[in-house]
Write a structure and sequence with these properties.
InterPro entries: Esterase-like, Mycobacterial_A85_antigen. The protein is α/β, with parallel strands linked by helices and about 240 residues long. It is built from 9 helices and 10 strands. The strands form 2 sheets. The protein has an 8-stranded mixed β-sheet, with helices on both faces.
Length: about 240
């Protein structure tokens, strides 16, 4: 068999209406090989949806895992973001952060579950993000624990505000975080400043562990770029779908 079956995919574009955000949000829904609406599937929600498909190659990765590794087929929902307001939506101090989180939990999830056969249980949902996308993903799990308990973090932009939020919890043993950080991410330039994300991730790992969530934590040589994250995404997805 040639490799063409890895690249075949069915992606449905949806415009999810949002009273909270005041406008609809574009999402991409990738259906797995052999999709059957009479079955039910786990679901992977991705921040930076366009980037996860274009640079993370998550659809191809998912096909490879299904065909080669026996992974359970899952539906992928990539949530697009306007890069000009990304920080405002994804950063805990952002003026649109609370509204975006409400949209995600109260409007997006019901919309998807009303149209696709995804399993309506926290254990069957994975929320994934890179950098600030990982930050908002973790906060979603903390604030909506009835909806999300599985987080994939690609070089999360975890600053003190996130650790302050973790400190409010007493027991995070219910939370599963698969956390990746590159050892070359010690001076990452962002629009909020330059940060040592390696140190920030180490500190956040300890903060989570102190509350009973022991992240599956991986450090390896890598920079704050999709070229690094793309290569690591397969095993992180396999952790939940294997």
């Amino acid at each position: 068999m040639d490799d063409q079956h890895y690249y075949k995919r069915t992606i449905v574009k949806e415009a999810v209406p949002s009273a909270v955000l005041g406008s609809s949000r574009s999402v991409r829904v990738c259906l797995p090989p052999g999709y059957n609406e009479l079955l039910s599937y786990p679901v992977v929600y991705c921040q930076d949806g366009e980037d996860f498909f274009n640079f993370g190659r998550i659809a191809t990765t998912m096909n490879r895992l299904i065909f080669d590794e026996g992974a359970e087929p899952a539906i992928i929902v990539g949530v697009d973001v306007d890069k000009t307001i990304r920080t405002s939506e994804y950063a805990p101090e952002g003026e649109r952060f609370a509204a975006y989180c409400r949209f995600f939990a109260e409007e997006l999830v019901p919309y998807i579950e009303g149209r696709y056969p995804v399993r309506p249980a926290a254990a069957e949902r994975i929320v994934a993000g890179d950098s600030l996308g990982a930050t908002v993903s973790l906060h979603l799990a903390l604030d909506y624990r009835d909806l999300f308990c599985n987080v994939i973090s690609l070089s999360g932009a975890f600053l003190q505000s996130t650790r302050d939020r973790i400190e409010q919890e007493t027991d995070l043993s219910w939370l599963t975080v698969v956390q990746l950080i590159g050892t070359d991410e010690t001076e990452v330039n962002t629009e909020r400043g330059t940060f040592d994300f390696l140190a920030e991730n180490r500190a956040t790992r300890l903060a989570l562990a102190a509350k009973g969530c022991c992240p599956e934590y991986t450090e390896k040589p890598g920079k704050h770029i999709w070229g690094f994250w793309q290569k690591e995404l397969p095993w992180m997805l396999q952790r939940f779908l294997g």
